[in-house]
Amino acid sequence: MQPRIVEVRQGVLKKNDLLARELRQRFRAAGVYVVNLVSSPGAGKTALLEATLRGLQPEHRVAALVGDLATDRDAQRLGRSGARVRQITTGTVCHLDAEMLDAALADWDLEDLDFLFVENVGNLVCPASYDLGEDLRAVLLSVTEGEDKPLKYPTIFNGADLALITKIDLAEAAGFDREEALNNLNEVRPGIEVRETSARTGEGMAAWLERLRELARGSRRAPAPLKAE
Ligand SMILES: Nc1nc2c(ncn2[C@@H]2O[C@H](COP(=O)(O)OP(=O)(O)OP(=O)(O)O)[C@@H](O)[C@H]2O)c(=O)[nH]1
Ligand SMILES: [Mg+2]
C-alpha cells in the first residue's frame, strides 16, 4: 500500500504546482505582490496583518485572504482595517491550496491591488507543501513558542523566504534566547532573512512595511515568469 499512497500524494501536489504557476503568472501580470503568511496557531499572523494592512493604506491598495478551519473571526478582525478581505473556510483541511485561492479570487480584479496577503491556516506542517503562487512566503516564529521550532518543523522554515520573530515585546518575559533562535533558523534555512516585530507595540513594523514595499518594487521590475507549457 505504501507506494500507492505516495503516488496519490505526488499527483495532488503536482496538480497544485501547476495551478500555482498559473496563479503566479496572473499575479505578476496584474502587478500585485502576494505574501503567504504561515505559522503555528496563535503566532500572531492576524495581528501582524491587521497592522500591515493599516500601515500600507492608503498609499497602497491591499487585500487579504484568510484561511481558517472553522470561523470567520480573523476575516472580521482584518476587515476592520478597511481592506478587502475574504475568508476561506477549509473545514478539516489544515492548509490552503492553489485551487482554494483560485476560487476565492474568481470575482476579484487583481489589477486593482498592489498587495495581496494570504493568512494560511495555523499549522507548521501542512501549509509547507502547497505553493500558492506567492512572491514571498513569510514564516512567523513567536518568542513564546520555543526557539527549537525551526529544528522540529524544518520543512516549513526551509521553504520560507523570510522569517518574522513576532511578539518581540514579550521576549524578556518569555526568556527568549535570540541567539539560539537565529542559530536554529540558520541551521534549517542558511542565510534566511530575519525580522523582529511586535504588532502590539509597533516595534519593527515600519521596517517590515518598508521591506515589503522594496520587495514589491523589485518584483514589478523583474521579467514575468515563463508561461506554463
Ligand atoms: N504581546 C503580544 N501579543 C500578540 C502579538 N501579536 C499577537 N499577539 C496575541 O497573540 C494571540 C494570537 O494572535 P493572532 O494574531 O490571533 O494569531 P494567529 O497566528 O493569527 O492565530 P491563528 O489564526 O489561530 O493561527 C492574540 O491574543 C494576540 O493578541 C504581539 O506582537 N505582542
Ligand atoms: Mg489568525
Q: Shape, please?
A: globular
Radius of gyration (CA) equals 17 Å
Total number of helices: 9
Largest sheet report? 7 strands, parallel
Provide the fold topology.
Layout: H1 2-30, E1 33-38, H2 45-56, E2 62-68, H3 73-79, E3 84-89, H4 98-104, E4 115-119, E5 136-142, H5 149-152, H6 154-158, E6 162-166, H7 171-174, H8 178-188, E7 193-196, H9 205-221
Parallel strand pairs: 1-4, 1-5, 2-3, 2-4, 5-6, 6-7
Helix pairs in contact: 2-9
The structure holds guanosine-5'-triphosphate (GTP) and magnesium ion.
Magnesium ion binds at residues 45-46, 74, 119.
Structural summary, described in words:
With about 230 residues, the protein is an alpha/beta fold. The protein has nine helices and seven strands. The chain has a seven-stranded parallel β-sheet, sandwiched between helices. The longest helix has 29 residues, at about 1-30. The protein is globular and about 45 Å long. Bound molecules: guanosine-5'-triphosphate and magnesium ion. The site of magnesium ion has 4 residues, from helix 2.
